[in-house]
Amino acid sequence: GALLVNERIDREELCGALSPCSLSFEIVVENPLELYSGTVEIQDINDNDPAFPSSQARLEISESVAAGARFPLESAQDPDVGINSLQTYQLSANPNFALDVQTRVDGSKYAELVLEKELDREEQRELNLVLTALDGGSPPRSAHVQIHIDVVDANDNAPVFNQSTYKASVRENTPSGTLVARISAYDLDDGPNGDIVYSFSSHTPAKVRELFALDSATGELRVKGQLDYEETKLYEIYLQAKDKGAVPGVAHCKVLVEVVDVNDNAPEVTVTSVYSPVPEDAAPGTVVALLSVTDLDSHDNGLVNYVNDNAPKLSQDSYDVYVLENNMPGIPILNVSATDPDLGRNAHLSYTLLQGDPTFGHLFSINRENGTLYLLTSLDHEDQVEFSMMVQVQDGGFPPLASNVSVSVFVTDLNDNAPTVLYPHPNTTATYTDVVAPGTPAGHMVTKVVAVDADAGYNAWISYTLLQATDPSLFSVGLHNGEIFTARQLREDEAPEHTLVILLKDHGEPVLSTSATISISVAEMVKEVLTDLTDVAPANDPRKHVTFYLILAVILVSAAFFITMLSVGIFKCYKWRQSKELYNSSRSTTYRTPGPFHHIDAVRGGFTPPSFYHQVYLTTDSRQSDLLCKKPFTSSPLGSRQGTIRNGEPGLYHQIVGTASRLPTPAE
């Protein structure tokens, strides 16, 4: 019963980074039959040195970088585990940098340079440091890398990530090329200094670079290798964004990628025969063989159950069903067919309609036993054309297995809608009147009948024909567009009013139709049309009172204006006759004491507008007059004598001023 080591054991070769590392075995003891399980844990020893990917590292750091800036360094790898794995880093003494050792989620260590004192390129152009990696063995093993730092000038602005940590999840069976995450950074600089290149950080493990690929231009992180949940459940990926300046600015971010387990491992059955051959007189219940089942998957994917191993198999992947609208409620429209090669209860199938849309429960129903799909109500093509649903077929095993199939129900159109007239509107008592002038040539479009049909396809095609007309030879209608044209030139003696009845028919079976009535006035002036419209206006039009009051107001204003103008004319005529009598009487007098001026304003009829006027100033014994051109509304008739002319022309403002022996008083 001694358990011996058969060959040299290498823990790193057997288990890699997994800890603890154990080997399981089973021992069968016969007579009496007993089964024992055993586990050997392989303990790690410190037999591996830490190792850096390269013996030298080179950094370019601008002298303008502020204190506190961090620079990730390449990580060392140690295949040992536990205390024997990589534990810490040490940095050679220097005045500018300190070392900050960080711990990842998986417990591994990585180091970052932290700038404590700003660099000065004029004092020192380069620095040489030594980074040492130490494991936790006794004595500890170590590795060294030379870090060469070039101090150079940099851009004023370094790239900046829009977030410091990105999180994503991906299934372990995701194919190569699948997008995992898209990182994004921006740089305020222009030109090459603002162009950003994405890359893995220097301390990113080689295993991560094998599994993931990063697009340097777009920042898209994609799957490159085969992920395995059973190997690694979480990847912590460090990325950087660097611009293209002479001294590139760098920004860093972290992407946490969670690997989601899928059921990609089949159960493994191990059969151990312990009693063979079986004697013919073996008692019922005698153990013949021992079976054990294991599954490498996790959670529910790793749970193993016996007997129900076949899901229902559908006869086709999807169903397309076509149903005429206005159907009878309760009719069967489809029979979903499926089979299950299992036996007994595991082969008993039940059908369920998955309720993606809550309204579908009122429209469709499925028989749980035979998979017949029923339509519970009448469908309308104009309401909804297509219904998509999912039918689930489930067996009676424990746990049950199920398969889904998609069902699409298409509602085909029937000609159940007549054309609907949009213009002229059929639900109004007002008559739509279009106007065309006499002399209009043939082919002139007068108006158009606009209609729609709620049906689809050929059932919605509308044709227009002239059913009735006051003069059938005068107008024609387009068969497919409803445009009404003059069929010939309109004469002066045409009837003033024409009524057209247009018949609209669709192309369905049976044909459905409707009609529209168009009124057309043949008129030369808008006034005639308005008169006609007034005649045909409905008696109950609520706007007729407003129109009446407007017309009455126009008449009253016109009458008041006419009376005013007539009164002014009579008054002016009276004044003119009075001045004429005064002038005639003055001619018979040899000498008369200068008397007051007489001022007459008259509108010259027929020659000038009403705003033009005469002003006549006469004195006794006046023998000659001066004709004075004067602008309207001049304050003093004597103030514009510098504009005196000897002859007057019709249509001008003028004043007749006689020689005066004195000036008039203000009252005069």
Automatic annotation (TrEMBL):
Membrane-protein topology: Single-pass type I membrane protein
Stretches that traverse the bilayer: 548-571
Domain of life: Eukaryota
One GO CC annotation: plasma membrane
Gene Ontology terms: biological process: homophilic cell adhesion via plasma membrane adhesion molecules
Main subcellular location: membrane
Cell compartments where the protein resides: Cell membrane
Coiled coil: none
Domain Cadherin: 53-161, 162-269, 315-421, 428-540
Annotated keywords: Calcium, Cell adhesion, Cell membrane, Glycoprotein, Membrane, Repeat, Signal, Transmembrane, Transmembrane helix
Keyword tRNA processing belongs to the record: no
GO molecular function: calcium ion binding
Protein's recorded name: PCDGK protein
Organism taxonomic ancestry: Eukaryota, Metazoa, Chordata, Craniata, Vertebrata
